[in-house]
Amino acid sequence: MLDDFQLTVQEWRALAVLDFLGDAPLYILAQRAGIQKSQTSRLIADLSKRGYIQRKRHPSDKRSTLLSLTETGADLVQQILTQSRIRNRKMLDGLSDEERVQLMALLGKAINSSFRYLEELKQDDTDTYEETTEPASFFEEL
């Protein structure tokens, strides 16, 4: 879907984060969008050149710059969100409202469990990840 709008995943993340936050310094944008610092400056320059992002001085720190969406960027985000909602609705069309709520709750639990597990792995300095973790399969019996 992002191909239709000629955006990469990283560019979409940056636009979506700025849509959510409003104004943000570069380091916050990179952190929230999960973009590597080495890629952020070039990504912002590209989005700025295309008219989606603007830079402005920080009101209380004249040395800092804040990034925000331009009107064109905000319009693009809304177009993408609209298309995404239509696509999601079509994909879940076979489910009742109750089943959709249940699906979202289950996905939320799986995502939270995944984040907790990843945090455990980060804190585990015994390097046992390779030895103890096998590839996941949705078809495996629990």
UniProtKB/TrEMBL annotation:
- Name of the protein described by the UniProt record: Transcriptional repressor MprA
Q: Which GO terms describe its molecular function?
A: DNA-binding transcription factor activity
Q: Which domain of life is it from?
A: Bacteria
What is the organism of origin for this protein?
A: Roseovarius indicus
Domain named HTH marR-type is located at 1-112
User: InterPro entries from the xrefs?
Assistant: HTH_MarR-typ, MarR/SlyA-like, WH-like_DNA-bd_sf, WH_DNA-bd_sf
Q: Please name the Pfam families in this protein's record.
A: MarR
- GO biological process annotations for this chain's record? response to stress
